[in-house]
Each structure stands twice: as structure tokens, then as C-alpha cells.
Write a structure and sequence with these properties.
Helix content: 25-40%
Number of domains: 3
Distance between the termini: 68 Å
Bound molecules: ligand OXT, adenosine-5'-diphosphate, magnesium ion
Radius of gyration: 26 Å
Largest sheet: 6 strands, parallel
CATH superfamily of the largest domain: Thiamin diphosphate (ThDP)-binding fold, Pyr/PP domains
CATH class of the largest domain: Alpha Beta
Strand order of the largest sheet: 3-2-4-5-7-6
Number of strands: 19
Number of helices: 23
Structural class: alpha/beta
């Protein structure tokens, strides 16, 4: 606090002139620093321009984006990567709304994040008298995040920031909104009193220990399994209990299925990994243990054909959120607690010997997996031009194998689903993608935060549509000289580039883009490296060069416009009109 105490002396009375003062700007910055915040992702403007400048002057890294949504996604993924809330700072009304999508996304994905937004004057907003960027932001944010707070007095800034941090990271993590009206920043108070008002959050995410009965129940159910399956979700990756999870999975001997962002928690090449036998293990397992994964749409809600109904299954679920239990099907053994504590408790109780799952189950999974891997292998080796997804991904798969600590960011439809299947991951929290909402637009925000928070090189594999949602941040990547290599899978459109206007008019079809677009030219305008790659060989050379040099690079990977399928692997979710004629 001493560093940032404002030396300004008020003009007023003689006694006053001796006092050292601080103000809202400094208190916000010091409250964040006191709690370990090192980076703020923002778009400057009234009333927070000076907050960003002063935070930078006080040693916080302040990354300025071109659009708040991307700054928000950067903050959201920072939460996932670090277990500390990522901070996004926006201007009032429109800037706030731009950041709000990312806050809702963080909440949906259980990532800790704080959206701090400047806001207009309460007195004018509440009487709806038309203030500059007028909006009742607190009311708008409330239904879309885990908690929302407003601070009106400088003396409450410390408490406000502390509450936001604790709300974001404790229990099930999520997004928190912190509303700071413009007037607050210039409020002054005695520096000593200001210093005392700050709060260092002690033990922000306390361990949640499962009950011994629940641990025993879970192990009893698991022991009774003839065909056990463990599903690892992004909650397990978030928990940073990597060694305990690996020890537990290996001791159980059960096949494990990683959800998309849990890939690499144990390597995809691990003998127990059943990622390449997904349908088989979902359908034929008899006991399923969920570790930090919800039975939502991505797991067909735990029922139906994909799960082999009418055969019954028993579920064990580890989750920090008690309300998650029985959300879709009955959970035979709920284990409520944090994943580190739960898995450690399970390991302790399993004893030295744990019976291996029946060999016929392990062998059945292995043969399905071998069959699928063998089927895919030749497709990955083609050198077609224009490329298809498999030819392009074949070389990128090798690049990640050779650089297992690189971060892979991925979005699109075909560009997402095929990358997920083809590219093996080897380390935890290296695969970052569209998450629970399947949202397009996370790409460049995630890539920027991944580079900044981890210091590792980033490979972003982007559908051409997906890239468009955050493409302007290529300038941000160049400005901060980040080691991000973006590969745009350019198939001229959403899913495919071959669709036609079914009304026969001159407008293009709704899902296609400019044919033969050159996304690589965009980055050249900002001083980065642009490459047009038309074959897997060219793609391989360009990506390797980018990963070696660490220079911001954008590769336009020319993909056959007819190679993709509608909505990638989730075409079944498209409603069909029985009346459609064309
Ligand atoms: O077991 P079986 O035999 O079934 O086989 C499975 C695995 O066992 C096997 N497998 C393997 N085989 C061999 N080797 C290996 N290593 C291996 N690994 C796996 O492969 C199969 C499939 O395995 P998978 O993938 O694990 O399983 P499956 O069945 O696919 O899993 C089901 C799901 C649901 C878990 C999975 O599919 C999944 O996670 N899906 C996520 C899908 C998703 O979120 N999609 C994004 C949204 S789509 C759509 O909404 C889009 N929009 C609209 C829009 C959005 N989203 N957001 C906003 C803000 N606005 C609009 C848009 C605009 S996508 C989109 C743009 C698309 O165009 P682009 O140009 O960007 O992209 P392109 O399509 O490339 O053109
Ligand atoms: P996926 O999409 O990978 O299946 P989900 O986002 O659906 O994963 O599920 C993640 C789950 O993990 C959420 O239900 C969340 O409550 C839980 N979770 C997050 N962090 C922890 C933790 N530290 N301990 C226990 N559960 C956690
Ligand atoms: Mg496309």
C-alpha cells in the first residue's frame, strides 16, 4: 500500500494539508495486488482508462484488447489455467455487455473470473435520466454470473474485491461481476485507513473433504463393477490434482475417457485411455465414475441409446457442487468434495491391493480402440492438395507430439471435432476449446492468455468461421509479440464452402464466405508472419518454423471446401423441417 499511497494534499484547512491520502484508483489496484493479481485483460475508455494506466505503472501487466469479449475470454481461461480468478476490465454499458458473454461463459464452464466494469452515476441511472452509457449493470449481470457486487465507497473496495475473489474460486468456481461506478475512482480517503481497509483473502478455496461414508460407498460400487469406466472432465483438469488422479486411475485399472479439455490429464497414449473407443465404453460399461464432468449434452445426459439403454448402469460422481448429483440420472454413489481431497481419500482407502477389472472388459476396450486407431492411421498420411482435415491434422498431430508442452487452442465445427479426435495430448491443461456451450470466438482471447499465463508456445487451430469471431486480436498478438501460431482451416465457410443460395439469387449461401480468402494477409499488415499452405508438407514446415521462432504467425491452411460435414460431429442436433422443399 505504501508504494501507491497518494501524496496529493488537499487544498482545504491547514490540519488536512498534512494528511496522506489515497483514492479509489489506488485502492482497487492495491486490493488486486494484495491478492496476487498479476494480469488484467481490458479495453480502455471512460471511466477506467486511468485505472489501466495506473495499474500498469504499479506493476500489474495490463493487456489491452480490441474487443471486450476477447479480453473476457482471456480472463476466463486464465481462471481455468491458474485456479485464480482472471480479471477483465471494461467500460460501462456497451463495453460491459461485450464482456458479459465471457462472464456467462466462465460461469457455465465453472472457471473463476471477475468482470470489473466501470459504470455511470447511480443517481442518474436509477432515475433513468440518460447518463453517458447509462445502464443498471448490476441488475443485468446478476442472472448471468455466480455473484454480483457493487462498491459505492472507497472504504469498501477492499471488502468488495475480497468478496469477488472468494465467490469466484470457492465451491464450484464461476464468474463474478464487480460494479465500480465512475465516482468511486476519484473518492479520496485517509491513506492509513485505506490501507487497513484492504483484505487479503485467506484460503479462498478451502478444501472440501468428503465424508468417510461417501468414500466407502463409492469404493463398494466401484469394486462391484465388471465393466468399470472413469470419465475425466475439465473439473478434474482444473483441480490440479494431477498426480493423485493418475495414481487413482492406474490403481483402479479401469479404462478412462477424457472429456475434451481433460485430454492430457493422463496422456491420450496411456494404455488405459479409451478415447478411441468412446461409443463402446459408454454403451457397454456397467459402473461409470465421473470425476469433474457433468452428465450434460456432451454426455447425452447419461441415458438413451449412447448409454446402451435399456441396460442399467451405476454412476459414481465426484463433484464439489452437491446440486450436481442426480441432475440427469440417479447417482448411486455421490462423492461431494474437491477432487484432490476425494481422490486422495479414495486412494487411501483402496489399500495396497485393488482387484483389476475383468480381462475380457479390458481386452474388449483395447480391441475397439486398436481398430479405430488403425482405421484412422492411413487417412492422416495423405498429402492431398487442397488438403482435407485428416491430411492437415496428421502433421499437426506430430508437431504436438514433439512439443507436448505447447498449448493447443481449438474451435470450429469440423476443425474442432476432428482435431479433438486426431491430436493426442500428453500433459494436463494443454487443450483449450469451446467448452460447455460450444461457443465460437474463444480462439484469440484464449491463445493470448495461454501465452501470457504459461509462457509456453501456443498453436491455435481455428475454423475460418470460428477465427472470424476474434480475428482482430491478431493485432494484439503482434503488439505484445506473443508466441502464437494460428492455423486457419480455410474451407470457405461454416462446415463447408460448397453451399448454394437455394432461392437462386445472386447473394451467396448463408454458410459460405469469400472463396479463396487469404487470412495470412491479415497478420502481415501488423508485422507478423503470414503463410499460405496448400499441402500438409507446407503446413508442417510453416508451423514448425513458427513454433521454433516464437514469432506471431498466421497460416492460411487451404482445405477442400467439400471436406467437412454439417455441424461436424453434432449434426444430429440440427432440427429438420419436414416442410423444407430445397
Ligand atoms: O467410438 P466411436 O466409434 O464412436 O468413435 C469415436 C471415437 O472413439 C473415435 N476416436 C478416435 N479414433 C481413432 N483415433 C483416435 N485418437 C480417436 N479419438 C477418438 O472417434 C469417434 C469420435 O470421437 P469423439 O470426437 O470423442 O466423440 P463424439 O461422438 O464426437 O463425441 C460427442 C461429443 C458431443 C462429446 C463431441 O462431439 C463434442 O465434444 N462436441 C463438441 C461440439 C461442439 O461444441 N461444436 C461447436 C459448436 S457447432 C455450431 O454451433 C457452430 N456455429 C454456431 C455458433 C456457435 N457455436 N457459437 C456462436 C457464438 N455463434 C454461432 C458456428 C458458427 S460451429 C460454427 C462455425 C463452424 O465453421 P468453421 O469454419 O469454424 O469450422 P468448419 O466446420 O471446419 O468449417
Ligand atoms: P466437461 O465438460 O469436461 O465434462 P464439466 O464442465 O461438465 O466438464 O464439469 C466440470 C465439473 O467439475 C463441474 O460440475 C464442477 O462443479 C466440477 N468441479 C470444478 N472444480 C472442481 C474441484 N476442484 N473439485 C471438484 N469438482 C470440481
Ligand atoms: Mg470452415
Amino acid at each position: 500500500m505504501a508504494d501507491a499511497a497518494v501524496k496529493t494534499k488537499p487544498e482545504a484547512g491547514a490540519g488536512e494539508a498534512e494528511r496522506e491520502l489515497t483514492d479509489g484508483f489506488h485502492l482497487v489496484i492495491e486490493a488486486l495486488k494484495l491478492n496476487g493479481v498479476k494480469t488484467i485483460y481490458n479495453v480502455p475508455g471512460i471511466p477506467i482508462t486511468d485505472l489501466g494506466r495506473m495499474a500498469q505503472a504499479e506493476g500489474i501487466r495490463v493487456i489491452s484488447f480490441r474487443h471486450e469479449q476477447n479480453a473476457g475470454y482471456a480472463a476466463a481461461i486464465t481462471g481455468f489455467l491458474t485456479k485464480m480468478p482472471g480479471i477483465c476490465l471494461t467500460v460501462s454499458a456497451p463495453g460491459f455487455l461485450n464482456g458479459l458473454t465471457a462472464l456467462a461463459h466462465a460461469t457455465t464452464n465453472c472457471f473463476p473470473m471477475i468482470l470489473i466494469s466501470g459504470s455511470s452515476e447511480r443517481e442518474i441511472v436509477d432515475l433513468q435520466q440518460g447518463d453517458y452509457e447509462e445502464m443498471d449493470q448490476l441488475a443485468v449481470a446478476k442472472p448471468l454470473c455466480k455473484a454480483a457486487y457493487r462498491v459505492l465507497h472507497a472504504a469498501d473496495i477492499g471488502i468488495g474485491v475480497a468478496r469477488a475473489i472468494r465467490a469466484a474460486v470457492s465451491g464450484r468456481p464461476g464468474g463474478v461481476y464487480l460494479d465500480l461506478p465512475a465516482k468511486l475512482f476519484a473518492q479520496v480517503m485517509d491513506a492509513e485507513a485505506g490501507k487497513k481497509s484492504l483484505v487479503r483473502v485467506i484460503d479462498p478455496a478451502p478444501a472440501q473433504i468428503p465424508s468417510p461414508e461417501a468414500v466407502k460407498r463409492a469404493l463398494d460400487v466401484l469394486k462391484g463393477a465388471k465393466r468399470p469406466l472413469i470419465i475425466l472432465g475439465k473439473g478434474a483438469a482444473y483441480a490440479q490434482a494431477d498426480d493423485a488422479i493418475r495414481a487413482f486411475v492406474e490403481k483402479s485399472g479401469a479404462p478412462f475417457l477424457p472429456m475434451s479439455m481433460a485430454k492430457g490429464l493422463l496422456p491420450d497414449t496411456h494404455p488405459q485411455c479409451a478415447g478411441a473407443a468412446r461409443s463402446t465404453v459408454l454403451k457397454d460399461s456397467d459402473v461409470v465414475m465421473l470425476i469433474g464432468a457433468r452428465l450434460n449434452w456432451l454426455l447425452s445426459h447419461g441415458k438413451g441409446k449412447a448409454w446402451g439403454e435399456p441396460y442399467s448402469k451405476k454412476f459414481i460422481q465426484i463433484d464439489i457442487e452437491p446440486k450436481e448429483m442426480d441432475s440427469n440420472v440417479e447417482i448411486a454413489a455421490p462423492l461431494v468434495g474437491d477432487i484432490g481431497s476425494c481422490v486422495t481419500a479414495l486412494l487411501e482407502r483402496m489399500g495396497a491391493q485393488w482387484p483389476a477389472p475383468p480381462a475380457d472388459w479390458v481386452n474388449a476396450v483395447k480391441s475397439k480402440k486398436d481398430e479405430n486407431i488403425a482405421k484412422m492411421a492411413p487417412r492422416l498420411m495423405n498429402n492431398n492438395s487442397p488438403m482435407d482435415y485428416h491430411g492437415a491434422l496428421g502433421v499437426l498431430r506430430t508437431i504436438i507430439k514433439e512439443r507436448p508442452d505447447a498449448i493447443l487452442v481449438n474451435e470450429g465445427a469440423n476443425a474442432l471435432d476432428l482435431t479433438r479426435g486426431v491430436i493426442d495430448m500428453y500433459q494436463p491443461r494443454k487443450r483449450l476449446d469451446v467448452g460447455t456451450w460450444g461457443v465460437m470466438g474463444i480462439g484469440m482471447g484464449y491463445a493470448i492468455a495461454a501465452a501470457i499465463e504459461t509462457g509456453k508456445p501456443v498453436l491455435a487451430i481455428e475454423g475460418d468461421s470460428a477465427f472470424g469471431f476474434s480475428g482482430m486480436e491478431i493485432e494484439t498478438i503482434c503488439r505484445y509479440k506473443l508466441p502464437v501460431c494460428t492455423v486457419v482451416f480455410n474451407n470457405d465457410g461454416i462446415y463447408r464452402g460448397t453451399d448454394v443460395n437455394r432461392g437462386g439469387g445472386t447473394d451467396p449461401a448463408t454458410t459460405v464466405f469469400v472463396k479463396g480468402a487469404r487470412y495470412d494477409k491479415m497478420i502481415e499488415g501488423f508485422g507478423g508472419v503470414g503463410v499460405n499452405a496448400t499441402t500438409p508438407d507446407e503446413l508442417k514446415r510453416a508451423v514448425n518454423a513458427a513454433m521454433d521462432s516464437g514469432k506471431p504467425t498466421l497460416i492460411n491452411a487451404v482445405i477442400d471446401p467439400a471436406a467437412g460435414s454439417e455441424s461436424g460431429r453434432i449434426g444430429n442436433l440440427n432440427p429438420q423441417s419436414v416442410l423444407r422443399k430445397k
